[in-house]
Design goal:
Shape: globular
Order of helices and strands: HHHHHHHHH
Helix content: over 70%
Radius of gyration: 18 Å
Number of domains: 1
Structural class: mainly alpha
Number of strands: 0
Number of helices: 9
Distance between the termini: 28 Å
Largest sheet: none
Length: 202
């Protein structure tokens, strides 16, 4: 049964999970600094779309696969970390060319969607959310729609903060040398994020 208490509880859980540092927010911050907020919008909307699909699959029973075969999360950790390292490599590489804006680009909408499926933290969030907050007395369709809507409504503003913060930093980087230093630091942040994904345990 869907109650106001359930709505408040799942909203608080989702906000904490989505606004805290993680792979998505590291990528969004780097994107905001390098490309600005508006060019990062496809990434911002791709994340909740992919996450909503994950959540729906878990509601429909896919989450039991991770319980039965925990090695699946390990595989996702390695694939997700490899992709983040690839993004860091592209950022490092773009800093060594004159026209870096032409040699690199923000994540596209579909790329942000696909990344969610190799993001182990996103799967753990889904599995935990469903196990704690799924309205069991509702039918499967209503319960799944409720979970996806609550996720999306909280996700978008929570992750947008990171892209916006990056775009604000970008406004103060008129000095080319300082801009390159910040971008190097962001690339290093992505590397550290990849390491944290590898070390992440559900």
């Amino acid at each position: 049964m869907i109650t106001w208490e359930l709505i408040l509880a799942i909203s608080a859980y989702n906000f904490v999970m989505y606004v805290t540092p993680g792979p998505n927010n590291s990528i969004l911050t780097a994107s905001g600094v390098k490309f600005g907020f508006f060019r990062s919008v496809p990434n911002i909307f791709g994340i909740p779309t992919g996450h909503g699909l994950q959540l729906a699959l878990v509601c429909l029973g896919l989450g039991s696969l991770f319980t039965t075969f925990p090695i699946l999360l390990d595989i996702l950790r390695y694939v997700g970390a490899a992709y983040i390292l690839y993004l860091a490599y592209k950022m490092f590489g773009s800093l060594n060319v004159t026209s870096s804006e032409e040699k690199s680009r923000p994540l596209k909408y579909y790329e942000a969607i696909l990344f969610q499926f190799v993001n182990p933290k996103a799967w753990v969030i889904c599995i935990t959310a469903v196990s704690l907050f799924y309205p069991e007395k509702e039918n499967l369709f209503v319960g799944t729609v409720f979970m996806v809507i609550m996720s999306t409504v909280i996700n978008i503003p929570s992750i947008s903060i990171w892209a916006f913060a990056g775009s604000v930093i970008r406004q103060y980087l008129s000095n080319v040398r300082l801009k390159k230093i910040i971008e190097w630091l962001l690339a290093l942040l992505l590397i550290l994020t990849a390491v944290s994904v590898l070390l992440y345990k559900a």
